[in-house]
Design goal:
The chain is of the alpha/beta class. The protein is elongated and about 115 Å long.
Length: about 950
């Protein structure tokens, strides 16, 4: 029998005629809902229900104090702190870093009825010992502030609690402490004939005193929910608190200790699976299987130890789940509206930080993030000026923009208000947020009326943020220390993180999806528990507190060991009546500390099979590869008639060596890039990228060498070039990096690198000329940036002749006597292996030979124009200038000279690639070499 059902039987047995006069107190409100359900099933007549409270609501009733939200409590604590410290007080955003920790410590002290004066005295002395100073040296200012802070904690506490009590409110610990002081008065005035406590485990000192006083006064009874499995084993931490309560009271009156683990048949599946998404998918599969065997979904609980798994879990549920109840809400901080408000804060806070001469400077990355937000994209559909501004931002390398720069390109009422806001006070920012909410509400309403587009969830975001913003307006007016945007941002984020959008549903029907704490006192036939990993179950040992562990032990405060015992009880209590149990954990991955399964799994494996032979445990491990093969499909693009026409047009226009290399490395990338011409994401170059650096170097070399085309090059010519390097580098950056700043920071260094590349190259050229002069050889520049093309004919599988154009741009062609040299400049790294092959088929299978294949194609095309000349092809790498001119090496290359049959072999390779491209049966497929995908612009599409 379920615990709450058994409790309902007991309540009816002893209070059937007086149910309306009793009070029932449970760990949480949800347990009360289930208890009402059981009571209703067992009573045929219409009666008044008993009063049912959660323990927190019950204690508030006794204390007479109002429980207020954490943000208000922090505001009040800061008010007291500021009142005591005066001008020495930190700003509120700095106070937030430690204020919440101090508030938790105060609550912990009070809820456990500790002697706060003694605790703070111990704490002050402990911190003084840390600064033990036998030499009697003068303390630094930092050390004085350190001691002063700990010495003031008691003063803060006294003033703070006095202030709260005057307002008739309090934090949790203070409310519990006051309840213990008023318990006798409550007993004297109590209107209940009996108070029944049920389903508790680890009681705080104040809860113990309240319950014990009521029991001693014959006003209350308590019913525990325990099992002999962990009660009789002193090493099992799940029974730590309950064993003590049993030993301190009368064991014969300890109700109830059951024997479910010993008597119940259980099937436990322990499943290890990589990644959170993998866990969610596994949960969905289990639920689908359970429903297929007509399992009542009401008796199934999907429990999330890590509540961030809610979204992937919801997407993984099968369609057969018609009804569900979700106990946790959707965090407002995860909504797109929150990310927009965060971007606005970043935009304005950074603008103030970078401002000069009272002129705000908006950082281009902040602007791009803001205007790329989905809600701004919706607005831009109706406003051309926004789209034009976005285009300008993306096609300029300017890093900062003034308000005037933005406003002169922007014509939109709300956005104009945002960028023209010169005050940027918290109140003015909140008014801007309010006007945005009203504006978006109108857009969503119009979209629903005109196009039937449903924006219900977005309207829900707007509604909850409107509540937060109105609350913040009251805070700003009441608390003068909320005086800047940084402080407002911290408070805004805190409120959003503590707010959840509730899921509406029938709480007692369908699949139950809940967090670990919501399972208290509830029992289900089937349990699916996710994230059964260390630091999740139990939670991490870290405790954020100012009170050291030894003082906590001495003064009876909670420690991480208490929390582990509480977690252990929740875990075992959840399992004790369940019949079908699935424990899913994240197996080791590359993420730090992501894969250690919970110690509770190890305990179950070692203890339960011998404890009860009717308990069957199975273990399953799923590798990442298994998940990928079952859930991730490879992208395959078949060659439709339309695609084949596009390919033919592309072949007529011409293929470059780089496009052929793309086809060799990844056919799907070729499809994205060449067939459907999917543009790569546009990135704003805040610092000069490698492509821009290469373009600038190529530009400068072309300008330097153009006057000498067709002439012999001498050492004097090179020396003249040296004086022009800086000029052409500067012009190159003006051409390829407009509006960019190359006078400061990383860009200045990259500009210096460009100068150094060319200086080293010219030095290399000078030495090369000296060597040629000694050998009486003539060195001449033939052409620069030479466009070349060649038409070849291929015969497809239908014996149709198709003309194909191969084209390219050669960086430099020079000659030494009658030998032509084809040179390609590279500002990136080039290894000699990149230009060396052993078999001709290597070009079709090895993408690393792309650089060699490129210049081999150049020589193949150029051969028609200079058939009588010997030809050498190679690369000059500016990063490895000491390697000099690196020639092609492979079959058909003799003494660095490209032999005639090499061109024939090159043509064969080209034709094989073209025929593969033309073959309608060869679909475009993904590469199997994941290293190619690392820097690919399309890897997010492929999910690689």
């Amino acid at each position: 029998m379920k615990f709450l059902e058994k409790l309902a039987d007991e309540i009816i047995r002893t209070n059937e005629k007086t149910l309306d006069k009793i009070c029932i107190v449970l760990p949480n409100r949800r347990a009360g809902l289930y208890l009402k359900k059981h009571l209703a099933k067992k009573i045929d007549s219409i009666i008044w229900a008993p009063a049912i409270f959660s323990i927190e609501d019950f204690v508030c009733t006794i204390s007479g104090l109002e429980s207020v939200d954490n943000t208000t409590l922090l505001f009040d604590l800061y008010y007291i702190y500021q009142k005591i410290e005066g001008d020495k007080a930190q700003k509120f955003d700095e106070f937030l870093n430690w204020g919440s920790i101090l508030l938790n410590d105060y609550s912990d002290c009070d809820i456990n009825l500790s002697d706060t004066e003694k605790i703070f005295q111990y704490l002050n002395e402990a911190k003084a010992v840390n600064l033990w100073n036998p030499e009697n040296l003068s303390l630094t200012e930092h050390e004085k502030n350190y001691l002063s802070f700990y010495n003031s904690l008691s003063k803060y506490y006294t003033e703070y609690t006095t202030y709260l009590l005057q307002k008739n409110c309090g934090y949790q610990g203070l409310i519990y402490k006051k309840a213990t002081e008023k318990i006798d008065l409550f007993i004297n005035e109590c209107v209940y004939s009996e108070i029944i406590f049920g389903g508790f485990n680890a009681l705080t000192q104040s809860e113990e005193k309240i319950i014990k006083t009521l029991i001693d006064a014959k006003k209350a009874r308590i019913f525990w929910d325990t099992d002999a499995y962990y009660m009789e084993n002193p090493l099992n931490e799940a029974g730590d608190f309950l064993r003590r309560y049993k030993n301190e009271g009368k064991a014969e009156n300890f109700n109830w200790e059951e024997n479910n683990f010993k008597q119940t048949e259980k099937n436990i599946s322990i499943i290890g699976i990589p990644s959170n998404v993998g866990q969610a998918q596994m949960a969905g599969q289990i639920i689908s299987n359970q429903l297929s065997i007509k399992e009542n979904p009401e008796n199934t609980a999907l429990v999330l130890a890590d509540e961030t798994l809610l979204t992937p879990v919801l997407f993984s549920l099968p369609d057969s789940v018609k009804e569900m109840n979700i106990t946790m809400g959707y965090p407002l901080a995860n909504s797109p509206l929150h990310s927009l408000f965060k971007q606005i804060f970043n935009l304005c806070i950074h603008a103030a930080k970078y401002s000069k001469d009272n002129q705000k400077k908006y950082y281009q990355k902040d602007l791009i993030a803001f205007f790329n937000h989905p809600y701004l994209q919706i607005i831009s559909q109706e406003n051309e000026s926004i789209a034009k501004l976005i285009y300008k931002l993306k096609n300029s390398n300017r890093i900062f923009y003034s308000s005037e720069n933005i406003l002169q390109n922007l014509h939109h009422s709300w956005l104009t208000t945002l960028f023209a806001n010169s005050e940027e006070t918290p109140l003015s920012m909140l008014e801007i947020f309010t006007s945005f909410i009203l504006y978006m509400k109108g857009i969503f309403k119009e979209a629903k009326n005109s196009a039937g587009t449903n924006y219900d969830i977005d309207n829900e975001y707007l509604y909850h943020y409107a509540i937060i913003i109105n609350k913040l307006k009251d805070y700003v007016k009441e608390y003068p220390f909320i005086s800047d945007l940084k402080t407002l941002d911290s408070i805004f984020a805190s409120l959003a993180e503590s707010t959840s959008i509730p899921f509406f549903g029938e709480p007692l029907k369908g699949l139950q999806i809940m967090g670990m704490l919501e399972t208290r006192s509830l029992d289900f036939d089937t349990i699916i528990l996710l994230s059964v990993n260390e630091n999740k179950i139990p939670s991490a040992k870290f405790q954020n507190t100012f009170i050291p562990y030894d003082i906590r032990i001495e003064m009876g405060l909670s420690t991480y060991k208490h929390k582990e015992s509480i977690f252990a009880y929740h875990f075992y209590r959840l399992l004790q009546r369940a019949k079908q149990i699935f424990l899913i954990y994240n197996i080791p991955s590359n993420q730090f500390n992501s894969g250690e399964k919970s110690r509770y799994i190890t305990q179950l494996l070692h203890e339960l099979p011998s404890y009860n032979n009717k308990i069957k445990i199975q273990q399953h491990l799923f590798s990442e590869e298994k998940i990928n093969t079952s859930n991730q499909k490879n992208i395959i693009v078949e060659k439709t008639n339309e695609i084949q026409k596009t390919i033919l047009n592309l072949l007529k226009k011409g293929l470059s060596p780089s496009s052929l290399n793309t086809y060799i490395s990844c056919q799907l990338k070729f499809y994205f890039q060449q067939i459907i011409q999917l543009k790569e994401p546009e990135n704003i170059a805040e610092t000069i990228d490698a492509a821009t650096l290469g373009s600038v170097v190529h530009f400068a070399l072309q300008e330097l060498y153009t006057p000498f085309i067709g002439k012999n090059i001498t050492k004097n010519d090179i020396e003249k070039m040296n004086s022009l390097v800086s000029k052409y580098i500067k012009e190159g950056f003006q051409k390829y990096y407009p509006d960019g700043d190359i006078e400061t920071g990383k860009n200045l260094l990259i500009s210096s690198v460009a100068n150094k590349f060319i200086d080293q190259f010219l030095l290399f050229e000078k030495k090369h000329i000296e060597k040629l002069q000694k050998e009486n050889k003539i060195y001449r520049i033939v052409q620069l940036e030479k466009y070349i093309e060649k038409n070849i004919e291929v015969v497809n599988e239908n014996n149709e002749k198709i003309n194909v154009k191969i084209k390219g741009l050669i960086d430099r062609i020079d000659s030494i006597d009658d030998t032509i040299r084809i040179i390609d400049y590279k500002t990136g790294y080039v290894a000699k292996e990149d230009l060396t092959w052993t078999e001709w088929d290597d070009f079709l299978t090895n993408p690393n030979l792309s650089k060699g294949f490129q210049i081999l194609l150049y020589s193949y095309i150029l051969h028609d124009q200079s058939p009588l000349n010997d030809m050498i092809a190679g690369i000059i790498s500016f990063r490895k200038i000491q390697n000099g001119f690196m020639e092609l090496k492979g079959p058909g290359i003799k003494n660095n000279i490209i032999e005639p049959e090499t061109h024939l072999k090159t043509e064969e390779i080209i034709k094989q690639l073209i025929l593969s491209l033309l073959n309608p049966n060869n679909a475009f497929i993904q590469t199997e070499d994941n290293s190619i995908c690392i820097n690919c612009a399309y890897n997010q599409i492929c999910n690689k």
